[in-house]
Amino acid sequence: MTAEAVTATPARHRRLRFVFITTLLAAALAITCVVSLASGQYALSPTEVAGILLQGVGIDTAWAPDTPSASGVILNIRLPRLVLGVLVGAALAVSGVLMQAIFGNPLADAGVVGVSSGAALGAAASLTFGLATFGMWTTPAMAFIGGLVAVFSVYFISRSGGRTEVVTLLLTGIAINAIGGAGMAFLTFLGTTSTREQIVFWQLGSLNGALWPNIAIVAPLTAVGIVVALFAARSLDLFALGERTARHLGLNVELLRVVVIVTVAVLVCAAVAFAGIIGFVGLVVPHLMRMLIGPAHLPLIVASAVGGALLIALADLVARTAVPLADMPIGMITSLVGGPFFLWLLVRTRRRSGGWA
């Protein structure tokens, strides 16, 4: 067997594994979407859901129920919520991949290091002070500014000697989250009853109240962020070799840093502006995908986007149906999953590095 054949075999196995895992995730996402649309206080069958969706795009079928309330529940309540959840999950997961790549640390995540808190603080400030400078885009714009300030702060504080120290990263995240929490508390104190309810909504994280106009804002932001991440994937592979090596190979490291950090802010602001703080998606999903398909960033970004969408869709299904006549905060559910995973990852990282003393 030639050297080329020996080299090609593992690469082919990785491609096949990527295709299999991504197809499996996509199929699970499709099934979850159908189950989510059919489940709830107003239960429907999958065929009735399919009939309503086809009817919504102008195709008449005998599957759709005659009652107009069924169509309203699906098209105006459940479907916007589901679509927003898929977009938010993809945005948070891809932002996690980018943060872990640029920090060179598997513990980096928008929620853990405070980027989500910064974005939520900016969004809450726009409502508390009645800002409307950019119309419907005001809240996402303020969330973007808050997230950008947070991610730049974390990056420059936690970097030392060309690398990111684990302890410094976590302590910086604690500080940024504390500052964001204090700011949210202050805005809660200043705000009216309605703005206080919205601030609590952001702190808990929820897809309740998703509207199509909100999705019209979140969708392009998420799409742009994921496209930029895909174009930056090869550069991130070079960056993973080390900054000095990447520079010798012709990579503009400074430009890559700025592009990735701005892209993270865009993705996080898209998620936080209308869904609040949903933690640990950007930590759990990229790490699991990296364990399954390897560290190459192009397949990792694609698989993480699908996996993040699946995780939020499942969490939202549980939030809506686990407790009768109640809608649990989705951020609570993701934290119940992500918290133990984060502790395991923390212990595993410490053991591999031989301690942090």
Automatic annotation (TrEMBL):
Q: Name one GO molecular function term.
A: transmembrane transporter activity
Q: Which GO cellular component term is one of those annotated?
A: plasma membrane
Topologically, how does it sit relative to the membrane? Multi-pass membrane protein
Q: Which domain of life is it from?
A: Bacteria
CDD domains reported for this sequence: TM_ABC_iron-siderophores_like
Keywords, ordered alphabetically: Cell membrane, Membrane, Transmembrane, Transmembrane helix, Transport
A biological process (GO) of this protein is: siderophore-iron import into cell
Compartmental location: Cell membrane
- InterPro entries on file: ABC_BtuC-like, ABC_transptr_permease_BtuC
Matches recorded under Pfam families: FecCD
- Specify whether Transport is a keyword of the entry: yes
Q: Entry's SUPFAM superfamilies?
A: ABC transporter involved in vitamin B12 uptake, BtuC
Query: Where would you find the membrane-spanning parts of this chain?
Result: 18-38, 82-103, 110-131, 137-157, 169-191, 211-234, 255-285, 297-318, 330-347
PANTHER family documented for this protein: ABC TRANSPORTER PERMEASE PROTEIN MJ0876-RELATED, FERRIC ENTEROBACTIN TRANSPORT SYSTEM PERMEASE PROTEIN
- To which protein family does this belong? Belongs to the binding-protein-dependent transport system permease family. FecCD subfamily.
Name used for this protein in its record: ABC transporter permease
Which organism does this sequence originate in?
Microbacterium aerolatum
